[in-house]
Amino acid sequence: MKIYIALLRGINVGGHKKIPMADLRELLTKSGLINVKTYIQSGNVIFQSKELDSKVLENKIQKAILSHFGFDVPVLVKSKNEIESILNNCPFPEEKKMNSYFIILNEALEKDLINETSQLKFPNEAFVITKNCIYIFYTLGAGKAKLGVNWFERKLKITATARNYKTMVKLLSLSS
Questions:
Q1: pTM for the structure as a whole
Q2: How many CB atoms lie within 10 A of CB 35?
Q3: Contact at 8 Å (CB) between 18 and 94?
Q4: pLDDT, tens digit (0-9, with 9 covering 90-100), for 68-88
Q5: What does the longest C-alpha to C-alpha distance in the chain come to?
Q6: Which residue from 147, 88, 158 is spatially nearest to 118, judged by alpha carbons?
């Protein structure tokens, strides 16, 4: 049995795409996922499955949500080990790391896109792009940032979702 973390993008934000976590846990349990737990209202799900292909799990969760709640939600599923690796490989020093965001990508990026985008510079925003994550630190906080998930999705032609350091740490803790 493998431990996974599903990251749902854009739910329960500003009254849109409302999904109560109790309903989500019940739905995913009925869909065959095991030991389903959620963390906060922003779409973090920890579960176990015998399925070894995370893309199969992404599709299963996405279809269940569409069928039950009536709207499409991008879902990224990563193994506990993948999330742990993303967290441990943060290139920022510890003080910045603890205030960083992790934009997790649904697929590996092409080197050309990484190189091209990595050349861009924005005041008060530092980022490092790897094949599966964009590590970003906002000097003035995320609320005033120019770079965010939507910007990177358009620029890199991918699906992504962001979590802060504290959420990443908590997800790993809950998956132990």
A1: 0.93
A2: 12
A3: no
A4: 999 999 999 999 999 999 999
A5: 47
A6: 147
